[in-house]
Amino acid sequence: MSSSFNRWRPHPWHGIEIGPDSPSVVTAYIESTPFNHIKYEVDKLTGYLKVDRPHRTSSLPPTLYGFIPQTYCGSRVGELMSEASYGDDDPLDICVISERHIDRSELILNARVIGGLPMLDDGEADDKIIAVLEKDHVWSDVYDITQLPAAMVERLRHYFSTYKVLPGEKSSVMVGQAYGQEHAKKVIQCSILDYQEKFADYNGIA
């Protein structure tokens, strides 16, 4: 048995470590799965998973979807995207590919970063990091997004381009071409620095 442990439930955003091998391998907290018709997200005050809204369209997330703990999309993340005025003031989002179906959320896993999608939402940078489940038997040899089937990447781009839009509405979202592992690692490193600056005096949930 480990000599140390958390007696109390850690806050998923602030109390879970990003992992010793970041930004190559990171801890991911999963909020939604490809089987969820409801969009869930962590309540920033309590740390519990809450219902955000039912999905507005028939689209469902193609992969596991959540965020990287102890990251924040602020000015540094925004500066990496020329069209953005700032980050979206949220933890950095991550999509995790797994061969086996994982049908529950509110869990943590180790994910190897392979790339990302630059998403601009109402002028704010809302990057989607793309990763594969560490030790996955099918995807274990994938280290960069260029090694994924093109159809899988396009499916992710299409989902994030359209998941908020109803017929007849104009989208406020722009999703650019995917970037590789090296740029994804820069985004993660900037989000860590943004987090450290934002929560430098963090002594509890504000």
Structure description:
- With 206 residues, the chain is an alpha+beta fold.
- The protein has a single domain, classed as Inorganic pyrophosphatase (Inorganic Pyrophosphatase, Alpha-Beta Complex), CATH 3.90.80.
- The protein contains 3 helices and 12 strands; from the N terminus they run ββββαββββββαββα.
- It has helices at 75-79, 150-162, 181-198; strands at residues 25-32, 38-42, 49-54, 64-67, 86-87, 93-97, 107-117, 119-121, 124-125, 128-133, 173-175, 179-180.
- The chain has a 5-stranded mixed beta barrel with strand order 1-4-6-10-7.
List the helices and strands and how they pair.
Blueprint: E1 25-32, E2 38-42, E3 49-54, E4 64-67, H1 75-79, E5 86-87, E6 93-97, E7 107-117, E8 119-121, E9 124-125, E10 128-133, H2 150-162, E11 173-175, E12 179-180, H3 181-198
Parallel strand pairs: 5-9, 6-10
Antiparallel strand pairs: 1-4, 1-7, 2-3, 4-6, 7-10, 7-12, 8-9, 8-11
Strand order, biggest sheet?
Answer: 1-4-6-10-7
CATH topology: Inorganic Pyrophosphatase
Largest sheet: 5 strands, mixed, barrel
Which second-level CATH architecture applies?
A: Alpha-Beta Complex
What order do the SSEs take from the amino end to the carboxyl end, as H and E?
Answer: EEEEHEEEEEEHEEH
What is the structural class?
alpha+beta
